[in-house]
Amino acid sequence: SPIDKAGFDDVKARLEGIEKAIRGLTPPASRTALSPGAAPGAAGRVMFVNNYPEELLLVLNGRNFRVAPMTTLPIDGVPAGSLNYEVISPTWGLRARRSAALAGGETFTLTAN
User: Fold this and answer.
1) Phi first, then psi: what are they for 12, rounded to 5°?
2) Angle subtended at Cα 72 by Cα 79 and Cα 59, rounded to the nearest 5 degrees
3) What is the reported pLDDT for 61?
4) What is the average pLDDT across 76-90?
5) How far apart are CA 78 and CA 39, in angstroms?
6) Nearest in space to 56 (alpha carbons), one of 87, 13, 17, 18
7) Mean pLDDT across 29-50
8) 4 SS3 class
9) Residue 53 per-residue DSSP state
């Protein structure tokens, strides 16, 4: 019927206009994630819980932290990416040597029992 044909032609014209507009779009030169912690260079946090009755040495990505007995040390601003850490006791020597991954905005907790 003529009414259906006119409606169909209208829809077809609109669809052609949308397709033309999409073809004219160009992708951005770069993409930026705006979610928390997803930005390049974002930092995370490491919480070191020392449940030992003695001071421990935490070596985190080559930086030394002395942690008093029965305390928790928050370390802010740790670059996202690979974490390499060692926990050393003056009495028992090396207690742990491990690697882990830290995402931006994430808190990574290490507990020495």
Assistant:
1) -65, -40
2) 50
3) 95
4) 94
5) 14
6) 87
7) 71
8) helix
9) S
Half-sphere exposure of 43 (CA within 13 A, CB side): 7
Strands 107-112 and 93-102: unpaired
To the nearest whole number, what is the mean pLDDT of the chain? 87
What percent of the chain is modeled with pLDDT above 70? Answer: 84
Q: Which residues touch 11 (CB under 8 Å, ≥6 apart)?
A: none
Beta bridge partners of 111: 49
Dist CA 44 CA 37 (whole Å): 8
DSSP the chain: -HHHHHHHHHHHHHHHHHHHHHHH----S-----STT-STT-EEEEEEEE-SSS-EEEEETTEEEEE-TTEEEEEEEEESEEEEEEEEETTTEEEEEEEEEE-TT-EEEEEE-
